[in-house]
Amino acid sequence: MSTLPQGDRPQALAILAFQGGPRYREELPVPSPVVTIGRGAQCDVVLADDSVSAVHARLEFDAGRWRLTDLESTNGTTVEGVKLAANVPTPVHYGVSMRFGGVTLLFREVDEADPEAARAAYVPAAPATTLREERSRARFPVWLVALVIVIVAVLVALFVFRGAMTAQPHPAPAPAAHAPPLARAAP
Predict the structure, then answer these.
(1) How wide is the angle at C-alpha 155 spanned by C-alphas 149 and 156, nearest 5°?
(2) What is the DSSP string of 125-169?
(3) Which of 9, 13, 165, 182 could form an SS bridge with 113, CB 3.0 to 4.6 Å?
(4) Beta carbons within 10 angstroms of residue 109's beta carbon
(5) How far are the Cα atoms of 65, 69, 94, 150, 162 from residue 91, in angstroms, in the given order?
(6) What is the pTM of this model?
(7) What is the pLDDT of residues 124-149, one digit of tens each?
């Protein structure tokens, strides 16, 4: 990708320009007032370099200024050579040099951009869910299914047991009463 003329840039609020390496002078637009920077495809600004963490840092415009936050990256984030503490938003100004792992970028202003208006209209995207999370929401918990099976088994056992207890057994035929022996007639 080459440097884009001012009019052909995507609606960028700021620009991150490579300061060295094979991508020297290539520019990456900062498309919204809150962006993630990293190697992973889920990031808003993707830096395809092994020294950059999958989700390395967050750049956001808030309260009238830009802030850069290192997101516990492996190789760190620096501004003008000063390493940032993890998870601490640090104010940054246009014209500063930022390093993400081994990638150095220059943070530049876009003349026609209005980060204040973009921030006012900004609606954060819904957090991404993993396939495991989606599947766990889509089915009953195993413990609930097991509980229902146990309750049904207990009810069936009680019904069978109660039926066996309340059933009247058929009385056994009474033994025939022995009749007294017939008296024999005397001869």
Answers:
(1) 90
(2) PPPP--HHHHHHHHS--HHHHHHHHHHHHHHHHHHHHHHHHHSPP
(3) 13
(4) 14
(5) 7, 9, 10, 59, 76
(6) 0.62
(7) 877 777 777 776 666 667 788 889 99
